[in-house]
Amino acid sequence: xxxxxxxxxxxxxxxxxxxxxxxxxxxxxxxxxxxxxxxxxxxxxxxxxxxxxxxxxxxxxxxxxxxxxxxxxxxxxxxxxxxxxxxxxxxxxxxxxxxxxxxxxxxxxxxxxxxxxxxxxxxxxxxxxxxxxxxxxxxxxxxxxxxxxxxxxxxxxxxxxxxxxxxxxxxxxxxxxxxxxxxxxxxxxxxxxxxxxxxxxxxxxxxxxxxxxxxxxxxxxxxxxxxxxxxxxxxxxxxxxxxxxxxxxxxxxxxxxxxxxxxxxxxxxxxxxxxxxxxxxxxxxxxxxxxxxxxxxxxxxxxxxxxxxxxxxxxxxxxxxxxxxxxxxxxxxxxxxxxxxxxxxxxxxxxxxxxxxxxxxxxxxxxxxxxxxxxxxxxxxxxxxxxxxxxxxxxxxxxxxxxxxxxxxxxxxxxxxxxxxxxxxxxxxxxxxxxxxxxxxxxxxxxxxxxxxxxxxxxxxxxxxxxxxxxxxxxxxxxxxxxxxxxxxxxxxxxxxxxxxxxxxxxxxxxxxxxxxxxxxxxxxxxxxxxxxxxxxxxxxxxxxxxxxxxxxxxxxxxxxxxxxxxxxxxxxxxxxxxxxxxxxxxxxxxxxxxxxxxxxxxxxxxxxxxxxxxxxxxxxxxxxxxxxxxxxxxxxxxxxxxxxxxxxxxxxxxxxxxxxxxxxxxxxxxxxxxxxxxxxxxxxxxxxxxxxxxxxxxxxxxxxxxxxxxxxxxxxxxxxxxxxxxxxxxxxxxxxxxxxxxxxxxxxxxxxxxxxxxxxxxxxxxxxxxx
Length: 772
Description:
This protein is an alpha/beta fold.
């Protein structure tokens, strides 16, 4: 009764709203209320026994009344409502749209705005879309594909590609009706349907009363058009938040397909095609199409200018067009001056055009929700064309925005990627436990400039994010006055000629410091010692060889420093325990070079100097042949990841001291031959990753003692010997490829009833080449 009464009220209300009759369910609702009151009485323990038998008879009568109503009256009402809806559909066609309206005695549709939903004309032959056109046409003409989404950043040519597709001879020959409608950021379903009706020659009403009427109108129109042949509906420039709108167009009719173009991904709607920026060859051809060659220019000089301009435009058709138009008919001096201005830091965002590049990109930023706007702006702190590990950005966001979950920060990355404001590139199989080194983040230079432009709307010293670029030893003028910087995120980049002669800058509010360096020797600025709020320090060397770092003592005793990441640096002088960073939670060392001093810290009580350290991540450190002794003294450690370290042959027996360790990852260490027997002392270990340890021959004999171990990842470990004690591991999940499964685990499956083996194909991922 508790479920039926509100449902009945809702049905009665809907009937009234759709003019299908009201009050017809009143008798049923009264019966339900009567039953509800009766049941409440029977629940009362004070009801006498003889009264209960009387109430039972009343319940039988109520059941009969309800059954009679549902079997007879409700069926008749339902049939009546169906007829009314069919009549409404007929009225929509015959009365509202003007079908059957007589002109000169003939029953024909009335032509109104016949070009309202026509495919746009192509003023110039598109350049660079031959391959995307072929791929998209293949999908569109595939009977198994009903809905397609073409997504890309703004200015990549989505509308141009869709328009070219609609003009293709094969597409026009297949679809008898091609309807093209621009949706934009403020869509109105009723208006779009009205446009479709008018385009096809039918009088629409002044306005539909509701979306239900518009749906009936759309369905009726499509049914009518389908008599002549297949239909293609193009919804151009669909914005985020239009998922419900798209579903209204998703009508199950044969020979009816929808093509959507959008800056955003709609993964649940249909097949997704991501349009990439133009390659250099196509970009060059497009630039030549828009800009005539300046007079008195040698072939060599002209080619050099073209190369520089193409590189600067980075494959964005809108940028190439704007730059090309601005240079068309101009002198050689103007061409050279434009290229020179870019080297001085000017952007292409404000080149005069209608519209400007900035006006094209700005709506994508404006459409972001507040937290994603902040995350997008942070991306301006990294360099052009930089390939960023996802873990770097996630570390920053976790501390900068107080997020305790790395999964939430990963979702922010995915949200920005779904809106084509950055690119998230997987490097291998999906990993577990918040390990995000297997993802690269890249961003188009134009989008990076958009992020920087938004941050520059405030005065330099008042900005929340500040980028400081130092060329040779030349600092911006504002740095020479001993300024107080109020930024919370400070990014400093230096070139290979920088001599580490720093000026003093007061940065009391900085929480995240991002250092980009290119020189072989680099001294950290002493003013870091004054960053009492500093939480994250990331140092990335963009030079070819590891850079030698000095003045590391400036980090000593920083009270809030929680995360340090060093990439491609030589840390011979680094002795982490001596810094006494009592708040440090995570240390990441990537492509670093180590020296002997790294191991010499036996006189330090590591548990007191690094009492909060919970995670150590060592990746692609080629000269690491053994684990530093002090690492095994960090009793607070919960995650230890050593990956892609080819010289690593053994782990210290002292690893057994890490009683709080939950995750041990030693993947892709191809010369690691065994895990120490003391591994069985890791009583809190729940995840072990030994994937691609090709030289691993055995696991600890007493691994079965690790009762909290629930998951093992061991792709390409079929040579490894499993000890008998592995059978004591209850509820174990194993991830491996077919060979490891058949040679190691298949024989154990009958004996380990709760064993789950996930067989995964080994990925040969060419994305790995993008790392270097």
